[in-house]
Amino acid sequence: MKTGRQYSLLAPALFLLPAAVMFIIYVLYPIVQSMSLSFYSWDGISPDKTFIGLDNYRELMDDERFWTSLFNNARWLVLFMLAPVFGLALALFLNQTVFGIRVIKSLFFFPFVISQVVVGLVFTWFYDPSFGLLNDILGFFGIRGINVLGDENLATYGIIAAGLWPQIAYCMILYLTGLNNLDQEQLEAARMDGAQKLTMLTRIVLPQLRPATFIAVVVTVIGSLRSFDLIATMTGGGPYGSTNVLAHFMYQQSIFSYRAGYGAAIAVVLFAIMMIYIAFFLWRMLRTEK
Amino acid sequence: MFPTDIRTRSPFAQGSYRVALLVALALWLLPLAAVMMTSVRGMADINAGNYWGLPSQWMLVENYTEVFRRTRMAQYLWNSVMITVPAMAGAVALSALAGYALAKYSFRGNLVVFAIFIAGNFVPFQILMIPVRDLTISTGLYDTIAGLVLFHIAFQTGFCTLFMRNFMMAVPDEIIESARMEGAGELRIFLTVVLPLLRPALAALAVLVFTFIWNDYFWALILVQSDTARPVTAGLAALSGQWISSWQLISAGSIVAALPPVFLFFLMQRHFIAGLTMGATKG
Predict the structure, then answer these.
(1) ABC transmembrane type-1 domain: which residues (chain B) (predicted)?
(2) Does B115 touch chain A (CB under 8 A)?
């Protein structure tokens, strides 16, 4: 960028203005409002709010539903890390130039383009205990009567599997792009030296794929913590709240239980957890800017 | 190329690879294939529990017309279009301006502003939910298409500004400088010199944002409650609750709802992927 400036600073200010105004109104200021709201008791409708200090947070600490949701968020986060792994495996599998491969790659990417509501419906079907394909397959092996989404111990895993479907597709496309841009000379040199496949993968390919891995991990972490649509469409948090996550628990408390203050406190906790990852991402990204 | 090019292998290996490809693809899309099959079945199949075999009668036309006749699917689709297109245009326009300011002008706080846009793009929706709902109610925009459009423009601006700014960085400073020398104003430079260079980036961003907004469910749930403004995602979710046993209709509805972004994706595939994988090769 230039040091001897030939323009007034009015121009960039005016360019920034519309976006900044919208962003402040709909994103930045609401964050502050939610934080402040978490110190109030409020039904979300009536004009009066009562300041109750940290009471919402104290209540959260004793709320079993909160801990269930938090634990489920952790399960999502850990299991979602399979997406970059499977995405890489799929990308390695598909990175060939045979006839029709482009169409096949796009078909593999398909699940990411579809709305999560549709993904949720599709998997609800797949799991259905009376006619779902999963039970037909299990029945073939003599296992019967598994109701994935009706079982407290299985339901969350069932939803996470549905969530992994589009997420793997997303990671796959990131890795395919990365594989397309590998340094060919390094690969050839390693091949000449007779390097084994696995050694090449870990020593040469993976280091070059680091930017793709970084983005894949970031979007996967954010995606796992944001999970809402699938839970809302597949189980609505049930059975007995066993599939709730913070995002959905917050929605239920604020909209259905008329506890906007309590909901705001849940949102603040989720926000705080996500800020750890956001801060890490920003730090990494801005470091390369300087 | 990594792994090794399969074409250098034996014909048997090549053949096996092709077979493996098709099997993997069939397994991967199995859930979706099931929905498509169900959407062309008759009620007799559903009642008889024939969900996975071939349909005993093909009801393609009947089921899909039934969806539009018996439900307000057409209205939901239209609402989705009316929400998505203006929101997409608004977000792309605002972020092109903002991205240009951040990429090509040096001023204090430039990086901070950029960082705020990126961070805002990643926050959980729930931290915005109650205040945005209140704001929308108090401005009289609750349960209107305009209410959703305004929110989507604002929120998508975060991601879009990140995207536009990174693409604008690649525009050479010399082009802008020489336009200035010739006495062109800043807005004119932006509109006639910079924007035309960014057409591919704008296309990539537009298809991405279209898909994001079209597929939104959460905000449709929060800011809208009646059929007059409800987009197709929320409409479909509501319908699936009403017709518990008419799976052939729900599945036809699902296909209809999924079609526009899928169609757009195939039409603009290169742009779509270029947008989505931005940053996956450098940085």
Answers:
(1) 77-268
(2) yes
